[in-house]
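Supplementary Data S3. Sequence and C-alpha cells for construct A.
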Amino acid sequence: MQTLRLNPRLINKILFAMLLLAALAVVAGSQLAPKVPLPMVLLYSTVGVLALGAVLVVVLIVFATVAQWVLRKGGTDPQWFWFSGEPPGLQKLRAEAEAQVHKDVA
C-alpha cells in the first residue's frame, strides 16, 4: 500500500490562503458590524475559519473513503457516478477481455 506524502510547499500555500481568508473575514466583519469590538470580530473570524477548515477536512475524508470503497469493490472510477453507465470504449474492452478469457479456457 502506497503511503501519502504531503508536500510542504502545498501545505504552506493552503495555510497562507486560509490566513488571507481570515483577514478578509476580519475586514468584512468589522465593516458589517461596526459596533462590535475588534477583538471580538477577530475571535469570531478565527473560529469561523477553523470551523470551515474542519468541515472541509471531514468532507475530504468522506469523499476519499467513498472513492476508495468504490475502487475496492470493482468500480472503474468514482467520477462515473455522475453518468448513467460506463464509457462505451470501456464496455467494449471488457467484452473483448472476457471473450479472450473464454477463448483461452476452451
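Construct B, processed identically:
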Amino acid sequence: MRSVSFQRPLEYQLVTETEEWNQGDFIRGTLRIANNGTDPTPPQVAQVILAYALKKDLKAGAVDWQVLERVELDVPALEPQATHTSDWELHLPSESPITDKAGALHLVFGNDQAQETGGRIDLQVSLHPILESFLQTFTTQFKFLEKYHKHLDGWTEVKLVIPDSREYPQLDEVLLQLRILQEQLQIRYVFRLRSLKRDGESIKMKRKKKEVEQALDSTEYLLPGGFPNRTRMRA
C-alpha cells in the first residue's frame, strides 16, 4: 500500500510491503521524504505510528488515536529537491484490534505533528492464525457458523450460530471472546441457555447466561513444529 502526505515543504510517501496482516505479524515498509521547497531543511525526526481509531470519529474529524507502537526515524538536512528514504518495522501485538465495522488500525506518518496533520493508511487486520484454527474446531467439528467478528476491549468477540440439530437443545447463543496474550490462548465462553420450567399448571421457558473462562499455554495448543494441536482444541 502507498500513501502520500504533504507537510510543506516536505512530502512524505509511505509504502508497505503487503496489504493484509494477521494479529502478531510484523508490518514493514519504507518512508520517503522529499524536500519540494526552495530552501534547505534542517535535520528532523519523522514518525510512523501504529494507532487505532473508531470510524465514526474519523468521519467526524475528531480522532482520539489509541497508539500501540511508534517508530521514530532520523531525517538529515535536505537540500531543495533532495530525498531521503528510511526502512521501518512495527509489530502488531497478538491481541491487537482486528478490522471490523466500528474501527481499524492505521499507520499514521509524518513529522512530530503526524497525529494532527500527517497522513494515514487504514490497515486490514485479521485474526491470529491460532485463533482461526481454534474457531475452525467449532465450524468443522461441531458445525457451528460464524456470524461476526469484532474488537472488544482487548479481545476479539465472535458470535456463533447454533447448528440446526437436536444436539444442543439448551443453547440459544454462543459468544466467544478470544485473544493470544503472552503466548497464552485465552478464551471466554458466554452461553445463553434455555430450559423448560413448570410454573403451576403451565410450563414456561427459562433463560439464563453462563460464562466460562479458559487459558491454554503454548505447550497445550501447539504441537512440535508450531502446528495447531487440534485434538486439544476439540477437547
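Helices lie at 55-60, 114-117, 129-141, 218-221, 230-234. The CA atoms of residues 22 and 218 lie 18 Å apart.
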